[in-house]
Each structure stands twice: as C-alpha cells, then as structure tokens.
Amino acid sequence: MKIRKAVIPAAGYGTRFLPATKSQPKEMLPIIDKPTIQYIVEEAVAAGIEEILIITNSQKTSIENHFDRSWELEYFLVRKGKTQELEQIQHISEIANIHTVRQKEQKGLGHAIYCAKAFVGNEPFAVLLGDDVVDHDTYPAIKQLCDQYEALESSIVGVQEVPYEDLNKYGIVELEKPLKDHVGKLVGMVEKPDSSVAPSHFAVLGRYVLTPRIFDLLEHQAAGHGGEIQLTDAICGLVKYEGVYAYEFSGKRYDVGSKIGYLEAILDFALKRDDLKEEVKVLLKNKTKE
Q: Is the peptide bond before 19 cis (omega within 30 degrees of 0)?
C-alpha cells in the first residue's frame, strides 16, 4: 500500500535554542535561507507523499503562515519585478496539501502523534521529526522507509549506527538478528539507555512508517521516560501484535536540535551551493588561520 500521508511533530518549545525560540518556533530557524521545517516537508513531497499534517501549538502560527499564500508580499515582488523571488514563495504555498492541528498539552512525542489519529484514519503513515534533517541527493530517507514498508507491509523505524558514547542520547533498537541488507526485525527499543547496557549500536533517528494500530496503543500508553508519553514505548507494544522492522537508511543526518548539529548543517548546505561555496571556503580558511 502506498504511503500517502505524513505527520511532522512540531509542538515542542525548542528550549535548547533559547532565547532565539522565545518568540520564534525552532522549526522556523533557517538553514541559510530556508526554514528547517521546509527541508522536512520537501523530503516528504519528494517521497510522493500527498498530505502532510504538522502538529503545532498556539505559539507556532508562523509555521502555518509560511506554507500559506502571502498576497501582500507577492504584490510587492510583482511591483518590484522580482520574478525569481516571487516564484520561490509561490512554490512554498503550492508544495503540498499542508494541514495543522494543535497539541494542547506537551505530553511527549507519543501524545503528539496521537493528535494525528483523525487525519491518518485507517492507513499507514510516515512520521518525520523536525529535529532531524537528512540529506540525500537522490533517495530521500523517508522514501527509503516507504519502499521498505511496501515490500514488508510492516511498520518500519529508520536507524543509523551511532558511536558508543552517544548511545544514551537516543532510542536504541533491540534486534532479533543482525541487520541483513540493512533490514532487521525488531524485538524492542530502549529509550536513552546507559551505553554499557544498550541492546545495539543502532539508534532510531527521526523517520518512521507506522500502521494505524499504533493509535490503539498510544491511546492507553502510560507516561514513560521523562514523565512523557513515549512513541518508543508504543512501538515496543506494537511488536507484540505485528511485525516491526528496523531499516538502516542512507544519507547524512543532522541533529538540528543541537547547536553543533545546526551549525554543521548550515556549513554543509552552504558548501553544496554554487552561489556560496567558494566564499564559504575562503571564510573557513581565514577562520582556521585565526
């Protein structure tokens, strides 16, 4: 079954980027000249996804505004003859069918996903976390997972191997057998385990394709790690009812929820742009000399 819908949770407060996120959503922080969340939306669109739901809160109307028409700005650009800029902002409003719903209380990622129940209905859906930007020139990460879903007809969590010292920062998968052709059946997951007892070196990194049965589990899911309703716990419950698989996706992943990850993303994306890369190289050389 083709994956038609995607959910992007974006209701968090972005406390790691205060004070910048006091009045601006962290998802709207730009990587050069494009908001982070636009990269996520474009990844979903490139995977053939037709409907996208963004989970927001009352402080994040700028996300809705970004994907809406801006008639006053368009009129200004027409008057000034700025055709290229006009095409750019019109493209944003036409990129996909974007919907929003508010998470009224911050109860965790699992609760945020549960807010998408009515939107998803009775079909499998993709989840893309806004803290994880994955760069792949030809094969978007979520498309890789969608293709695996179509082959296996089972829920898929996207994973990559992380260093031993970072295992306690992520949800770590426990596998029935070692990955074969980048795929392995899931036994369970542990949220931010001590590195010495982690069940593997593979972390779940912000990309999922899930069956709608996950909502039955989320509806009754008790609070877990950090006192929040964890998507990880619900996926562990899902394993008891149906097959769930881990897929090691390819692509450069940036944790843009961290300051260093965000800076790295800005530098790498700038170095890929013809209009910026040479000047950035010079800038970096001069800075390293200092």
A: yes
Please give the Cα distance from 244 to 91 (Å, whole number). Answer: 36
Q: What are phi and psi of 99, to 5 degrees?
A: -120, 160
Q: Average pLDDT of each block of 10 consecutive residues along the chain (290 residues)?
A: 93 88 91 95 95 92 92 94 93 92 87 94 94 92 96 94 88 89 91 87 94 93 78 90 94 93 96 95 89
Domain extent, residue 171, equals 5-257
Contact 173, 186 (CB under 8 A): yes
Q: In this structure, what CATH number is given to the domain that contains residue 18?
A: 3.90.550.10
Contacts of 87 (CB under 8 A, 6+ apart): none
Torsion of CA 122, 128, 129, 134, to 10 degrees: 170
What's the predicted TM-score (pTM) here? 0.92
